[in-house]
Amino acid sequence: MTASTMADTALNSAAINEVSDVLKDKLIDAEYKIWKKNTPYLYDVVMTHALEWPSLTCEWLPTVKSAGPKTNEHSLLIGTHTAGDEQNYLMVASCNLPKDDVVIDNRTQKDDGGDDEEAEQEGENSEPKATAATSEAKAAAAYNEEKGEVGGFGHASSNIGKIEIRMKVKHQGEVNRARHMPQNHFFVATRGPGAELYVFDLSKHPSFPAEDSVFSPQVVCCGHTLEGYAMEWSRLTKGHLLSGSEDTNVCLFDINSNGSNEKAGRQVKPLSTFKGHTKVVEDVDWHCKDPHMCASVSDDRTIRIWDTRDPTKAMHVVESKHEGDINSIAFNPVNEFLFATGSADSTVALWDLRNLEKRTQTLSGHTDQVYMVNWAPHDESVLASCSADRRVGLWDLSRIGAEQSPEDAEDGPPELLFLHGGHTANVSDFSWNAKDPWTIASVSDDNVLQVWHPAEEIYAGEEEEYDSTGEGEDKMLGDDDLE
């Protein structure tokens, strides 16, 4: 092949890729418009907040306080992933949600012509007490086409749906992951682009740092040689922090252990280092009842179950049969034998500790790699997963094997309860709100934070699966669809 031919081939390939990207963007935009049109029927709460920078992480904090007769103020941990030399931050955001006994009268909350930018950031919501008998007229009245709101969140007199940054702590590099200690939510551990883990005591930091302040974690966990995302606090042993890294190792830290006091914080070494994986350790988790049992998953496609009392070898090494890297693992918070894994092969697998020879179930519904899996804190049979396909899937394991009509089967398996389709880019993380069941926060690569709660009739015993993406729909749902 001549140099001229090679150049022509490269140009043609670039042109094809450019056309492909344009078509993909148009498809994403069309799907988003359909989703937005159908939000009055599919959600009790939807808020969309535009962040200044993308957040790779989000987690609800366990704090709730009254913000008025109709609202409670909840708190979220998020971070930044800035560009260039811009300063990165660990942040706490407040989010006002309707109280359980509040019903918003959408028919009285009209567009008041308020600030469009504020309205766009304050988001979308439908009636918290919607029922299957809700009329199309009422749902349509709840929806503001121009602002893309449901439930009057943009109304100037209402603080429902308001999301504000309440605290910023300087961070060294982007925040890959942030998680609070279950026993003391002021203690927050983070992962960045370096090998270390950082622990901040938020009670020792101002709400907003001074311009000349410096990065100042209270504890620096040193044991890895490369960066990573994997990190999880023990729910049973206060101060125990598990981590995994690109160096293929798993480390266990006790932040209460003695360490050297340095300018950048007290440095602690691992209590134990677990070796065995041959590729990047993507995620770790602790068992719900055994304080000594933990697990790790890796790009080597194995699951390793460890006993912290013997770090020299894994209790179990499971060849997962996933056809891609394993990105996530989560033990069920109630059922001591059940755990789930999420993989780059676009599937979620369920496992039983009593028989690790093969998975008990494969959940198929995503079309791209699964980044994260997490169990609902209020229902042991419900699991959520987020993916590079821009979706967050909700799964109800009690529906596995349920009968379906051929039409329903086209939308997915019976256990696929709901697909949240409000994001237009990869969903990097999500979090269940333990203080407000069925409320989820999710973040995506396009600077968007969404807080949402599926309509009650979707999870309250209805047999039909709901796909909030609107795929297969080209119009608003009719009266027959709501019966």
Question: Which terms summarize this structure?
Answer:
single chain; WD repeat; Beta-prop_EIPR1-like; 483 residues; WD_repeat_RBAP46/RBAP48/MSI1; mainly beta; globular; 5-stranded mixed β-sheet; 6-stranded mixed β-sheet; nucleus; repeat; 14% helix
3D architecture notes:
- The protein has 483 residues and is mostly beta strands.
- It is built from six helices and 33 strands.
- The strands form eight sheets. Strands 8-9-10-11-16-15 form a six-stranded mixed beta sheet, with no helix packed on it.
- Strand 19 (293-298) and strand 20 (302-307) form a beta hairpin.
- The termini are far apart.
- Residues 102-134, 458-483 are annotated as: Disordered.
- It holds the Pfam family CAF1C_H4-bd.
- Residues 268-395 form the EIPR1-like beta-propeller domain.
- Residues 113-125, 459-471 have a biased composition (Acidic residues).
The proportion of residues forming helix, as a percent range, comes to: 10-25%
Measured distance between first and last alpha carbons: 64 Å
Give the beta-strand count.
Answer: 33
**Biggest sheet statistics:** 6 strands, mixed
Overall geometry = globular
Which whole number gives the mean pLDDT? 85
> Low-confidence stretches at least 5 residues in length (pLDDT < 50)?
103-141, 151-157, 462-466, 471-483
Q: Which strands sit side by side, in order, in the main sheet?
A: 8-9-10-11-16-15
Brief summary:
Residues 31-99 form the Histone-binding protein RBBP4-like N-terminal domain. The protein has 483 residues and is mostly beta strands.
